[in-house]
Amino acid sequence: MSLHLSSYPIDDVLPELKKTVLDNNAVVLHAPPGAGKTTRVPLALLDIMPPEKGRIIILEPRRLAAVSAAGWMAKIMGEQAGGIVGFSIRFESRISASTRIEVVTEGILTRRIQSDPSLEGVAMVIFDEFHERSMQADLALALCLDIRKNLREDLKIIVMSATMDCGPVSALLGNAPVITSVGRAFPVEEHYLEDRNEAPLRKRVVDAVSTALNKTAGDILVFLPGSGEIRACTEALAAIVGRMPDISVHPLYGDLSFDEQERAILPSEKRKIVLATNIAETSLTIEGVRVVVDSGLTRRLLYEPSSGMNRLITVSVSKASAEQRKGRAGRLGPGDCYRLFSRYSFQSMTSFSAPEILMSDLSSLVLELAAWGIKDPSELSWLDTPPAGAWNSAQELLIELGAIGQSGSVTAEGREMARMPVPPRLARMMLRARELGCPGLGTDIAALLSGRDILYRGAAGNALYQGDPGMEGRLDVLRAWRKDKKRSGRSEQWAEQWALRTADMTSKQLVRLLHTDRKILSEDIADHDMTSRLLLRAYPDRVAMRREGSEDRFILALGRGVKLSRESANRDSRFIIAVNADSGEKGEGLVHLAEPVTEDLVRQECGGSIKTGKRIEWDRRELKIIAAIEERLGALLLFSRPFNPTDDEAIPILCEAIRSGPGMISFSKQARLLQGRVSLMRRTFPEETWPDLSDERLLSAPEDWLAPYLGGIRNKHDLAGLDTFAALKAQLAWEQARLLDERAPVSIVVPSGSRVTLDYNAGEVPVLAVKLQEMFGLADTPVVADGRVKVLIHLLSPARRPVQVTSDLKGFWDNGYQLVKKELKGRYPKHPWPDNPWDAAPTRKVKASSPNRSKP
Question: Across-strand partners of 805?
């Protein structure tokens, strides 16, 4: 099929691309924004893909881009979408038997693969804008590669990218050839406006737009991080636009209606100011843009596996994204780019944005793979392998939802959940609603939670009402709107009409997917308990209980602390379901949408997860064991009553308290002496096996020696009264105890006849501290340990102070005694100081009183 197409840069490489596609089952096409790849490549490939080979599926990351691309290609063919070129997006499809090019969004392709694993009737899958690295695109590519490997060798794959490094993609595709096209871009003059972080973003945007309106021509495209900033800047620009009737302002972000999005991208008689998120970076062409104002910011969801919650963060864009944004000003002719940051900030940006698969909740991906038969991500080929932490967290959630078993295999419920175009939590809730006979209520809740909030929010994202009414309040608004098919008195100032229409349509589509004849709408069951029951099935890990003494702080079943938003009206509830919560900062999450729930309902719906058990622990403040029988839902304590633990239960706790708390037990003098005696045996008789009775070993493993003596003990006071000597002595075998008494006696008899206790803990050898006069006449230093160790003698003065330390007693009598005598004799005249200590009688007594001494 030959088509007359006006010239685009991609046209120059189309002949090469066709030949390469014929010769290879995978090709990588690198073409900058504006080259024309999205619409030119599929049409050109019709020439080499005859109808009998099957359709060309082209994957687009966004619904608006898919519809726009299909419409543009159909227009070139002189048709409406649904003929040769069609599209399939969520809840809408325009295809026919004659369709040969089908543009689909990412979730559509994944579900089609699940229902038709061999992709019968599909000749080629084209991944457009792959540089955006959405998780669904990574998943779809991994599944297509698996299909080609095991089922369809003839399936052709083309990966198209504007900015990414094509080398890794080529390697993933089996060293696929890379074809590069030049872009069509006119020069764009850059204006760096320096970093003015102290000024509000809306003011900086208004200043830049005002400058651009005065100095440039053409439409202006402003890149902002999110819808909140877009609303704020829309209101801030109102004053300028009000004075300029030829200027119009258009928001552009994913949650807007198609009509509003089309007004932003289609040509207009007025000069347009389009305020957009990164939706306008690549896949959408906005007619008439000659000026870009780039905030340099984008919004990303960062998943934290430890908390099971996302955190919405505002970050700087990558260099690649900044360059793509700038390039939007050079599509039609020379343009201008006003950057609300400095050249230095640009140079410090990362080269490319992080892939979504590395930052996101993987529950949908893990469920899809389980339905595909994959339990381990390493079984597939990935550009970036899913992180282990997020993978394990997703598996735990899916097990709790009943979607997969403990082995990771998909359950019957999980397989049905994978068919639903909603996250696993909401899919499980819908199945529960069908079980309870209220599928319409379940799909209403799923529709409200999966789309844009129906309650209108102002410029800064603040609700225009006092107190968030929760899920039940939103259901009431939807019910009232359905009754009137227009804004009711209550919803008039609260509700966004397009969001209500979308929610209504989505709910009806979801009911059909449930394959149920009982299409009971939510207005037929206005039962708050039923709403809470369904939400509990979707968010079993998000049950939260109020912290004692707090009005707005709760603790989640996962153990994470959370705080209610200021708008929440659920400050009187002891239990809530944190339906919409982010992980927040500084360890505390923020709950944006909460639903109150009773404890009885929690027990009914989450009974399988409520665990009854004993908690026995050491109270570090009271220094005693506390024990309670508890019912817990995760980290939430539902019920507790004290009980007296058995010795078998208490002894391990006591041992841990002794191990972790210094000073919990004390050693008597007798116990210390035993430790020292045994230590001497260990050093002196290494060939024998003697127990280690050191403090380090005893306190690190009290269960090895102290457990039999801990019966009945429950606090530190009782621990302090332990007979540690008996416990230590029990560590010795009978023969060891006999040898110890023989080799390391507690005391020895000195020449005076006194029995003196040896000090075995004073050093490496035992110390004998004895009065000098009691050792007269003894030449040989006493020994222990079968004669292997001489004791160290501390010879004491009459005041029991050491006057000589020696292990050579004979040498002291011969050489040192006279000096000691000379020094001390005058100070202690009542004690004997013989001239010859060898002949003197050893004594512990003083000299006898003189008979001639007069009495006092």
Answer: 794
Report the chain's C-alpha Rg in angstroms: 42
pLDDT at 498: 79
Distance in angstroms (rounded) separating the CA atoms of residues 144 and 381: 10
**147 three-class SS:** helix
Residue with tokens 């019957």: 412
Q: What share of the chain is helix, strand, coil (3-state, %, to 5)?
A: 40, 20, 40
What are 724-777's pLDDT values in tens digits? 999 999 999 999 999 999 999 999 999 999 999 999 999 999 999 999 999 999
CA-wise closest residue to 336 among 222, 204, 202: 222
Angstrom distance (rounded) from CA 681 to CA 691: 9
CA distance 851 to 689: 61
Q: Look-up: residue for tokens 């939510």?
A: 522
Whether the CB-CB separation of 336 and 221 falls below 8 Å is answered with no
Let me know: does 518 contact 441? Beta carbons within 8 Å.
no
Q: What is the pLDDT of residues 684-706, one digit of tens each?
A: 999 999 999 999 999 999 999 99
Long-range CB contact pairs, 518-521, < 8 A, 24+: 518/434, 518/437, 518/439, 519/439, 519/440, 520/437, 520/438, 520/439, 520/440, 520/441, 521/440, 521/441, 521/444, 521/482
**Domains of the chain with CATH codes:** 9-180 (3.40.50.300), 188-358 (3.40.50.300), 669-742 (no CATH), 746-824 (no CATH)
Query: Please, which pLDDT band fits residue 439 given cuts at 50, 70 and 90?
Result: very high
Strand stretches in 662-788, DSSP E: 747-749, 755-757, 767-771, 783-784
Residues 249, 263: Cα–Cα separation, whole Å: 10
What is the greatest pairwise CA distance in the chain?
A: 148
Minimal CA–CA distance to 46: which of 160, 124, 145? 124
C-alpha distances in Å from residue 398, one per residue of 535, 608, 658: 15, 15, 41
pTM of the model: 0.76
766 backbone dihedrals φ, ψ, rounded to 5°: -65, 150
* 3-class state of residue 665 by DSSP: coil
The whole-angstrom separation of Cα 12 and Cα 636 is 65
Instruction: Decide if pLDDT at 525 tops 80.
Output: no
The partner residues of 544 in beta bridges, in order of sequence, read 556, 576
Which is it for the CA torsion 401, 532, 501, 241, positive or negative? negative
Transcribe 481-539 into DSSP letters.
HHHHTS--TTTTTTB-HHHHHHHHHHHHHHHHHTT-S----GGG---HHHHHHHHHHH-
Span of 490-504, 525-539, 632-646, 834-848 with lowest mean pLDDT? 490-504
User: Which residues, including other chains, have CB under 8 Å from residue 262's CB and lie 6 or more apart?
Assistant: none
Q: Which residue type, as a one-letter code, is found at position 433?
A: A
> 394 with 541: CB under 8 angstroms?
no
Q: Which of 147, 166, 139, 121 shows the shortest CA–CA distance to 61? A: 139
* Residues 265 and 287: beta-carbon distance below 8 Å: yes
Taking residue 168's Cβ as centre, other Cβ atoms within 10 Å add up to: 12
Of 422, 579, 576, give the one whose Cα is nearest residue 507: 422
Mean pLDDT in residue range 301-321: 81
Q: Check: CB of residue 89 under 8 Å from CB of residue 108.
A: yes
Signed CA dihedral, 707, 713, 716, 720: sign only: negative
Contacts of 396 (CB under 8 A, 6+ apart): none
Helix/strand/coil for 443: helix
Closest C-alpha among 516, 541, 535 to residue 448 = 535
